[in-house]
């Protein structure tokens, strides 16, 4: 007989309890069901199989031959299911999946996550990079780190913790600077190729720099999809990127990137650690949250 999708798992669970305890009443107590509901599930299974599973005798029950054949297989199957659940639960507790942007992953998290694992060696870390806000009930991930305007009520049903402000300034390579110099004023940047002139950060930065009439709309755009790729293009000398200084301290210190002006702007957004309210007390999430916020406090970006 091929049961397929009609596999009566609940009825089998009830049968296993009744056969193990040899009592409809005690099986109901164990499963939190009434005796009537237990009897119904057993009769349902007998109907599916076309066989009686129990002999109802005065003041007791006993397994029929069909019940004797079925009982060990069902017990073994539920034992295997329980073992699988324990294994899956242990694996879920031992792996922390972090969903974040490629830029934050490459220029901050990947460089620091080893410090977290030193303090929590039993937790394996998996990084997933994406540009959109994940759906926790659909997408893989225990926590997410996302850019946006967070704060109370920004993401209903989610807990959010501020990680860093997201500011920005123009940066370019020494080779490009040598080719276009001098860059004496912010307006001189308009002599250069801007990697993505359609990025709203450019308009905000030029306005703050006293160049409200900067011609940005007529310039060709490069849509790389992440700040990390724009930074790589800037380092290669392909144009001027509008980048977050905190992510490129090493490149600025080594001279691979140059920030020609001291003006750094912000649009009020930042990076936030977010996760469902229901996961607040999961040990692996609590461990990562505490480490991240403590590290940020000790080494502010």
UniProtKB/TrEMBL annotation:
Spans traversing the lipid bilayer: none
PROSITE patterns noted in UniProt: HTH_LYSR (PS50931)
Sequence ranges assigned to domain HTH lysR-type in this UniProt record: 7-64
A Pfam short name: LysR_substrate
Family indicated by similarity: Belongs to the LysR transcriptional regulatory family.
Single biological process term from Gene Ontology: DNA-templated transcription
Keywords for this protein: DNA-binding, Transcription, Transcription regulation
GO molecular function, one term: sequence-specific DNA binding
Superkingdom in the source lineage: Bacteria
Name of the protein in question: LysR family transcriptional regulator
């Amino acid at each position: 007989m091929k049961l397929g999708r009609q596999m009566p798992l609940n009825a089998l669970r009830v049968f296993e309890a009744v056969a193990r305890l040899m009592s409809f009443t005690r099986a109901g107590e164990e499963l939190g069901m009434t005796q009537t509901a237990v009897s119904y599930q057993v009769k349902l299974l007998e109907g599916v199989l076309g066989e009686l599973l129990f002999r109802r005798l005065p003041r007791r029950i006993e397994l029929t031959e069909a019940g004797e054949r079925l009982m060990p297989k069902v017990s073994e199957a539920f034992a295997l299911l329980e073992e699988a659940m324990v294994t899956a639960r242990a694996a879920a507790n031992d792996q922390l999946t972090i969903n974040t942007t490629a830029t934050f992953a490459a220029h901050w998290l990947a460089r620091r996550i080893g410090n977290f694992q030193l303090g929590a060696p039993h937790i394996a870390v998996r990084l997933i990079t994406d540009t959109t806000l994940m759906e926790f009930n659909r997408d893989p991930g225990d926590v997410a780190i996302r850019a946006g305007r967070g704060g109370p009520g920004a993401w209903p049903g989610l807990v959010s913790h501020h990680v860093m402000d997201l500011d920005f300034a123009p940066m370019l390579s020494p080779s490009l600077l040598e080719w276009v110099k001098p860059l004496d004023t912010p307006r001189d940047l308009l002599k250069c190729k801007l990697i993505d002139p359609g990025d709203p950060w450019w308009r905000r930065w030029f306005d703050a720099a006293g160049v409200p009439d900067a011609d940005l709309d007529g310039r060709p755009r490069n849509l790389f999809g992440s700040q990390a790729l724009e930074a790589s293009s800037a380092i290669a000398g392909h144009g001027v990127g509008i980048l977050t200084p905190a992510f490129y301290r090493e490149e600025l210190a080594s001279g691979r990137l140059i920030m020609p002006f001291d003006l750094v702007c912000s649009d009020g957004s930042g990076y936030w650690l977010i996760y469902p309210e229901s996961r607040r007390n999961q040990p692996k999430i609590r461990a990562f949250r505490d480490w991240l916020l403590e590290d940020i406090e000790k080494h502010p970006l």
